[in-house]
Amino acid sequence: MTDQSTVPLRLGTRRSKLAMAQSGLVARAVERITGRPVELVALTTHGDVSREHLASIGGTGVFVTELRDAMLAGEVDFAVHSLKDLPTQQPADLALAAVPVREDPRDALIARDGLTFEQLPDGARVGTGSPRRASQLNAWARSLGKRIETVPIRGNVDTRIGFVRDGELDAVVLAAAGLNRLGRGAEITDLLATDAVLPAPGQGALAVECPASRADLVAALAELDDPHTRAAVTAERTLLAELEAGCSAPVGALADLHADADDPATVTELRLRGVVGTTDGATLVQLSTTGPVPASHDDAVALGRELARELLAKGAAGLMGEREL
Ligand SMILES: NCc1[nH]cc(CCC(=O)O)c1CC(=O)O
């Protein structure tokens, strides 16, 4: 009889440095919890091969499809995704087995000469391919009485930071979580306050997925789950889904635990903030709602749904570009 406990679990991963770093972190945590060895199986996804054609090969979730196919084909046992890259609809045959404790959800600026966002000169060229970032950065610059030029950029973290190092751009904006996981957090020159820039729904969180049919594996991976992070990202992603917006829409959202001002000892509230804006930052709708920390999945969903309705009532749909709602 084979001893199951010595058979390695196969963790399917994309080949990018960030994916390998994230998968490596989860692999070690799973080894600690299950006592079973975990081996990384690097797959090449279509999204990695032709980033420039992201839109034409389906936009949302393009990086996750091939990993999911490999799991369902039994080629790998489980996978780790950046939660913000996952489509909001979870397929029935795959379990979202764990959402581990979230990294820093904020966006980070890497600027020349150690500059903060407020210190950037009028007309500074700031690289980001994200309409959400462009929208909020342009609005922030306006409020500071200056203009910035947001420049669409693509490529991996090295490529993006390279635009600053070679002088082509004054700054780039990336997720702090990715930089921290790559060991490049020291290059951040400004962590962008969430009062100014709300991150993408789910930013900084990982999703650990496996086939729903593998009950033992689902249960083992569930040990990595952090209920607070799960509730927060559930509210954020529900907001996104209710706006019928995808990962490239100008939508920011962040749910965070909030101490009651009168009784800080009881951290019992979850605050959900959401923003939708035009890319030029001329018009932004930002709202916030606070409720008890969700006791169930449905409570977290309700919080996200409520804020989405309020945003739509304030004209959010009209700000999301070509999308007709
Ligand atoms: N869309 C790409 C992507 N997906 C996840 C991260 C970073 C890690 C995270 O947000 O968890 C990034 C890069 C970035 O936005 O800078």
UniProtKB/TrEMBL annotation:
Q: Which residues carry this modification: S-(dipyrrolylmethanemethyl)cysteine?
A: C247
| Keyword terms of this UniProt record | Porphyrin biosynthesis, Transferase
Pathway in which the depicted protein is active: Porphyrin-containing compound metabolism; protoporphyrin-IX biosynthesis; coproporphyrinogen-III from 5-aminolevulinate: step 2/4
Q: Which GO terms describe its molecular function?
A: hydroxymethylbilane synthase activity
- PROSITE patterns recorded: PORPHOBILINOGEN_DEAM
The record, for InterPro entries, names: HemC, Porphobilin_deaminase_cofac_BS, Porphobilin_deaminase_N, Porphobilinogen_deaminase_C, Porphobilinogen_deaminase_C_sf
Name the needed cofactors: dipyrromethane
Q: Which residues form the Porphobilinogen deaminase C-terminal domain?
A: 232-312
Q: Does the keyword Repeat apply?
A: no
User: Which SUPFAM superfamilies does the record match to this protein?
Assistant: Periplasmic binding protein-like II, Porphobilinogen deaminase (hydroxymethylbilane synthase), C-terminal domain
Swiss-Prot/TrEMBL GO biological process terms: protoporphyrinogen IX biosynthetic process
Reaction catalysed by this chain? 4 porphobilinogen + H2O = hydroxymethylbilane + 4 NH4(+)
Q: Which Pfam families match?
A: Porphobil_deam, Porphobil_deamC
Q: Which GO terms describe its cellular component?
A: cytoplasm
Q: What is its EC number?
A: 2.5.1.61
Q: Which class of enzymes does this protein belong to?
A: transferase
Residue ranges of every copy of the Porphobilinogen deaminase N-terminal domain listed in the record: 9-216
Query: What binding details are noted for the cofactor?
Result: Binds 1 dipyrromethane group covalently.
Q: Does the keyword ATP-binding apply?
A: no
Q: What else is known?
A: The porphobilinogen subunits are added to the dipyrromethane group.
Q: How does it assemble?
A: Monomer.
HAMAP family given in the database record:
Porphobil_deam (MF_00260)
Q: Which family does this protein fall into?
A: Belongs to the HMBS family.
Please give the name of this protein.
Porphobilinogen deaminase
Source lineage:
Bacteria, Bacillati, Actinomycetota, Actinomycetes, Kitasatosporales
